[in-house]
Amino acid sequence: MLGPVILAASRSDAMRRIVSAAPVTKPVVKRFIAGETVQETLPVIESMADRGLEVTLDVLGEDVTDPAEALRARDAYLQLIEAVKPLGLAECAEMSVKLSSFGQALPGGHDLALKNVAPVVEAAAEIGTTVTLDMEDHTTVDSTLAIHAELRERFPQTGAVVQSYLFRTEEDCRRLAAAGSRVRLVKGAYKEPATVAYQDKHEVDKAYVRCLKILMEGSGYPMIGSHDPRIVAITQELARQAGRKLDEYEFQMLYGIREGEQHRLAAEGHRMRVYIAYGTDWYGYFMRRLAERPANLAFFMRSLISRG
Questions:
Q1: What is the DSSP string of 155-204?
Q2: DSSP letters of 95-115?
Q3: Within 10 Å of residue 171's Cβ, how many Cβ atoms?
Q4: Which residue did the predictor score with more confidence, 290 or 276?
Q5: Closest by alpha carbon to 127, among 102, 107, 157, 97?
Q6: Average pLDDT over residues 43-68
Q7: Residues noted as catalytic
Q8: Which of 125, 159, 239, 252 could staple 182 via S-S, CB 3.0–4.6 A?
Q9: Could you read off the pLDDT of 124-169 as tens digits, one per residue?
């Protein structure tokens, strides 16, 4: 029951100030955040590649309040792409973007976000990598999927994310599971009303498996965003039933979570991609990680107690 409370706190300025000021917070945040700058993050990318892991990179920031901030988000990703280029790791290092960072919630935000994200997708394609559009709360789904469809006209490898806790997602999966598509399936990490989303964890899990089956039986490339060992096992069985080879789908997990499992899957020959976030605007991302898994919250609370 703590999950909804933490998600509400993720949008509270008062809680942001309290959590950010706590002495224990920064060391704990380092578990989930690779660094505050591109240069701090590059060694992490190289280390992952050396261990057979692929990465997707997220420059932290969302809910921008003016067009200038949206331009800064665009420029931060362009800087990231320029930094990754000389590493020669474009094939294993893609980008993840939140369209709210590119101005989606501002007046005229749909067109503004498309205008700002297009140069990032183009620059990524020029160095041989791809961009996946992260999904946010349910009010943004139609806009995000419309921008995804428009970007795919020029850059067909642009990925999309869908969230199993939304009632609409099974139908979205049917539309997206076409040849050449790349779809990351996650359970969802925003507080959503009961009118649009499952509230019970068991129902969310069942919906995840239904969506996963649709994607596996489709013609696209499924990206399984889950740390749940049951989902990992079900994925392997559904892939076997669908006749998929190990390079025809991939697992994705967050930086700092279940690292042993990440290495195990990579060692077995699976494509294993780690979601690496970096930047100074870490609060909302960090709080959602706490809300997603009780183990994350327990880790944070133990740190508070031990340092207190």
A1: -TT-EEEEETTBTTHHHHHHHH-STT-EEEEE---S---TTTB--SHHHH
A2: EEE-GGGGTTTSTTHHHHHHH
A3: 11
A4: 276
A5: 157
A6: 92
A7: 134, 184
A8: 159
A9: 999 999 999 999 999 999 999 999 999 999 999 999 999 999 999 9
